[in-house]
From TrEMBL:
<dbReference type="InterPro" id="IPR051556">
    <property type="entry name" value="N-term/lysine_N-AcTrnsfr"/>
</dbReference>
<dbReference type="Pfam" id="PF13508">
    <property type="entry name" value="Acetyltransf_7"/>
</dbReference>
<keyword id="KW-0012">Acyltransferase</keyword>
<feature type="domain" description="N-acetyltransferase">
    <location>
        <begin position="1"/>
        <end position="153"/>
    </location>
</feature>
<dbReference type="InterPro" id="IPR000182">
    <property type="entry name" value="GNAT_dom"/>
</dbReference>
<dbReference type="InterPro" id="IPR016181">
    <property type="entry name" value="Acyl_CoA_acyltransferase"/>
</dbReference>
<protein>
    <submittedName>
        <fullName>GNAT family N-acetyltransferase</fullName>
    </submittedName>
</protein>
<keyword id="KW-0808">Transferase</keyword>
């Protein structure tokens, strides 16, 4: 396995790896057709085996606190994407990518990582294994058809919402008991030992 910087020629392999790795998670429908680009500097690494992209990690980092991250008053890096192709999972690729990006982050004087994920227990356990700590959370709520009754109304004549995606930052989940798809979106933070 080779861990190296992402290059533009890796885009299709990056997309395939990310899509396939997300299929068995709560982010299964978060499909990208192009790799994201970032407003700020970023560390973008891929893991490659026999010419195939089998893992990836993207960390956008800030020069001024709280311009990318939100949880600390120090220089942070946001893990936007971390993924391992399902055929290569449980072989230490995610750990190797994390170690490689941590090394580069420390050289750049980044002081912590922030990562947001949904309520997949195995994903949360992965972050906790590598000493990320839960910081805060809110909810992603997907509404379809009758689930929108009493929650959403259109103020435009002859306009009828059919589906909706919303953020809920409150604590009263009881009002969403009739909604099939809702996910806790959890922020994990890893402060580096300098």
């Amino acid at each position: 396995m080779i861990i190296r910087n992402y290059t533009k020629k890796d885009e299709q392999g990056w997309l395939r790896c990310r899509i396939l790795s997300f299929l068995n998670t709560a982010y299964f429908d978060n499909v990208l057709q192009q790799k994201e680009t970032y407003e700020n500097a970023a560390i973008e690494l891929v893991a490659e085996i026999d010419g195939q992209i089998v893992g990836l990690i993207d960390v956008e980092y800030e020069a001024t606190p709280k311009t990318v991250c939100t949880q600390q008053d120090s220089i942070g890096g946001m893990i936007w994407h971390i993924a391992v192709h399902p055929d290569y999972q449980r072989q230490g690729i995610g750990e190797a990518l994390l170690k490689a990006v941590l090394q580069q982050a420390k050289e750049l004087h980044i002081e912590y990582f922030e990562a947001w994920t949904r309520d997949d227990p195995w994903v949360q356990m992965w972050y906790e294994k590598y000493e990320f700590e839960k910081s805060t959370s809110y909810y992603h709520v997907y509404l379809e058809g009758n689930e929108m009754k009493n929650l959403m109304n259109a103020s435009v004549d002859q306009f009828y919402p059919v589906t909706a995606f919303a953020h809920y930052t409150g604590k009263d989940l009881e009002q969403f008991q009739h909604v099939k798809r809702k996910h806790e979106c959890v922020c994990y933070v890893k402060v580096f030992n300098q």
